[in-house]
Amino acid sequence: MIRHVFLWRVAPGADPREILSILDQLPARIPQIRTWELGAHQGEPDGNGDPWEYGLVCDFDSMDDLEAYTNDPFHQEVVARLLPMFSERAVVDFELSETAR
Fold first, then answer.
1. What's the domain count of the chain?
2. Distance between first and last Cα of the chain
3. Which residue, of 36, 48, 51, 53, has the fewest CB within 10 Å?
4. What are the helix (H) ranges across 1-101?
5. In a domain, 14, yes or no
6. Which tens digit of pLDDT belongs to each residue from 37-90?
7. Which CATH number fits the domain that encloses residue 41?
């Protein structure tokens, strides 16, 4: 299983609720998504530095499924709509170990 983690900070003037609403359209449109979790950071910053404001975690059965998600035309449309709404973003994809499943 492949885990996809996407983190972002909202650009000045952008509506965080609109971002979440747009992102939440993806699971219904892209069948390769196995799990989907989306949310805002909870708590105050601490000695670890400034936290990311929002995060998305989703799982795929394989790298091929993640690639299909990445290249899906609807996903590409969502990305194009959202990019101006982010001030910063980060992503990491990794394979889950058998013990983590």
1. 1
2. 8
3. 48
4. 16-23, 26-29, 63-71, 73-82
5. yes
6. 999 999 887 767 789 999 999 999 999 999 999 999 999 999 999 999 999 999
7. 3.30.70.100
Report the alpha-carbon distance of residue 70 to residue 62 in Å, rounded.
13
Please report, to the nearest 10 degrees, the dihedral formed by the alpha carbons of residues 9, 27, 58, 91 taken in order. Answer: -40
In Å, what is the CA distance from 28 to each residue of 5, 34, 74, 86, 92? 19, 11, 11, 23, 22
Which residue range is the domain that position 67 belongs to? 2-92
Q: Is the pTM of this model over 0.85?
A: yes
Q: Is residue 101 part of a domain?
A: no
Nearest to 27 by CA among 82, 68, 69, 65: 69
Residue 44 domain-assigned (yes or no): yes
